[in-house]
From TrEMBL:
<keyword id="KW-0645">Protease</keyword>
<feature type="binding site">
    <location>
        <position position="213"/>
    </location>
    <ligand>
        <name>L-glutamate</name>
    </ligand>
</feature>
<feature type="transmembrane region" description="Helical">
    <location>
        <begin position="72"/>
        <end position="93"/>
    </location>
</feature>
<keyword id="KW-1133">Transmembrane helix</keyword>
<dbReference type="Pfam" id="PF01019">
    <property type="entry name" value="G_glu_transpept"/>
</dbReference>
<comment type="similarity">
    <text>Belongs to the gamma-glutamyltransferase family.</text>
</comment>
<dbReference type="InterPro" id="IPR043137">
    <property type="entry name" value="GGT_ssub_C"/>
</dbReference>
<dbReference type="GO" id="GO:0036374">
    <property type="term" value="F:glutathione hydrolase activity"/>
</dbReference>
<keyword id="KW-0812">Transmembrane</keyword>
<feature type="binding site">
    <location>
        <position position="580"/>
    </location>
    <ligand>
        <name>L-glutamate</name>
    </ligand>
</feature>
<keyword id="KW-0378">Hydrolase</keyword>
<feature type="active site" description="Nucleophile">
    <location>
        <position position="487"/>
    </location>
</feature>
<keyword id="KW-0472">Membrane</keyword>
<dbReference type="InterPro" id="IPR000101">
    <property type="entry name" value="GGT_peptidase"/>
</dbReference>
<dbReference type="GO" id="GO:0006751">
    <property type="term" value="P:glutathione catabolic process"/>
</dbReference>
<feature type="compositionally biased region" description="Polar residues">
    <location>
        <begin position="28"/>
        <end position="38"/>
    </location>
</feature>
<feature type="binding site">
    <location>
        <begin position="557"/>
        <end position="558"/>
    </location>
    <ligand>
        <name>L-glutamate</name>
    </ligand>
</feature>
Amino acid sequence: MPSSSSREAQDRAERERLLPNENERNGPDNQRTPSSWWTPRMFSGCNDPNSVEEDEEDGVPSRYPKRSSSKFWIQSSTYLVILVTGIFLGLVASKMHREIKASRGNGFPTEAGYPKIPPPSGLPRPPAYLVNGTHGAVASEEVTCSNLGLSILKDKNGTAVDAAVTTALCVGLLNAFASGIGGGGFMVIRIPEHSPLPHHKAREAGIWAVDFRETSPAKSQKEMYGEKKAGRVAAQNGGLAIGVPGELRGLEMAHEMYGTLPWEELVMPVAELAKRYQVSRILAKRIRSMGESWMKNFDAWKQVYAPDGQFVVEGDWIARKNYGKTLETIARHGASAFYEGEIAKKSVRTIQGYDGIMDEEDLKSFKARRYPAIHQTYHGKTIYTTSAPTSGGVMLGILNLLEPYNFQESSCLDSHINQHRLVEAMKFGFGARSEVCDPAFAQNASRFDEFYSKEWADAIRPLITDNTTHDYKYYGLVHDTPIDKGTTHLSVVDQWGGAASVTSTVNGIWGSKVMDPETGIIFNNEQDDFAIPGAADQFGLQPSPWNYPAPGKKPLSSTAATIILNDDGSLHAVLGGSGGSRIFPSIVQVILNLECGYDISAAIERPRIHNQIVPQITTIEVGPEGEDKGLSKSLRAKGHELLLFDVNLGIAEVQGVILDNGTLWAASDSRKHGVAAAY
């Protein structure tokens, strides 16, 4: 956001210049049509190497062509080609619309490139647990890890960050399909003014974001996954899919800022756990549901997950011995043991053996980044989250759009019109998100601040029509963005009011499917979150050039680790989620539910709705109570294409802790069989 009054005045004048008058804003039958003025490219914050090229003669950007007669026929021919192409794409889109409509309730159409999703089963949901205490709480997706983190708070008098380090490493061990030291992520931490920290650290009191997102290796190229090269599959599986891991550098940085216990005491309990632990329901489910027969073809995987030739099942005892030894080394020698020395050499050897390009210098040079968390107010509270390349700013923008509706005074999300407004706000959020990229590679990173400004929301809100939804182009979607996946989240609060909201990931389930046999490390496939040049999606949207791979670049992320403060500055809530592109919309819905008086468990467990513009489908979770036919009828009447699916699929999960009148309440999402802990 602009830091000076003069900058604010300039921005305000620019926005007023760009905003339409009422006649421009309203089309036939008073339906607003933003296509005449909604031009997000003019604001673009990220560098598009293909969109602005200087003319050799006078330096004028080539996207503003000079009107020379010698170019007339070339331009005319080009326009004709574009017209014919547009007609063709229109016919394709029309056909796809019919296919989607015909598949209503039965899953995404295979023709559109989306997998089928099982319809609602009517089966009972897993139990949801609400725990409480007065001193500390940990909410993670694994009960063993929640309890292990709580022991750091309770038995060792540790801080929220101390507990978060142990809990994150624990989840990465037990649920290795989602996270681990071979991945990366983001966190937001609250360092309270009154804490056990030495005086010099206490001066850092406040709310900080820590960015430990994986980076693209130094030998990366924009065209490295192009059709003439490796292709998209190489960004998903194998060595070329692996970004430089950042988890340990991120945990290390947070520990230096707000940790009191020795690093070794935080890591060693997880190293011990690696010697023998029990297969959970979600781990068995992930192995079974993915049909991971490939595991049996690689000894490193087979020894852990199919030691007798058959895949392990819930309740079996297994071990990750090599991984445990790696954690022991890291416990004794710190995070640097991962980035330099024998572990680094072995990791690079394995990655390059699977055609990867990462080298030891990539690991050695990786650095986490910290900065004051971005924030915005919402109904008297202040919400802190992470900036680009995450979707934290977009999440704040969605809340800004919804703020004047006062859901708590209008039946909350039980109201059909409020559900429609939520979906529409979500879609404008995804439109804005299509411009987000790594700020280090942005032409105008301040553009990202506009997305969570009140002014942006005030300009967009009139476009939310209560009687109808709109075509995808209406929402400012300028480019296709990859759909990220997987991930884990944990939320921690300590006895001093310190807090940690940590989202970590290896991206896809089992990441790149590369495990180093000597260290036991499972590596991410974060490179799949980059766009690939030259391949339009089924709606004709070109991939975002702002999100192409580049040396040292971080791909776009859907995460939004969150901490919320009351108007007096006291802690209110710690939230975050997993589940790819559904992460930040899920957090928004939990915040709305909390505002409407639900406890943290109920706020998390309530069925959710989702729409990310492409595909043009609104998905609705359905529990054992069955479909809300009134809601479905209302949304369809407004033009929404609906897909109903079973809430038990566990596509997106939220973990949260709230502080209410001196009592901590914590809950983990039953969609992933999570259980929180508190004392």
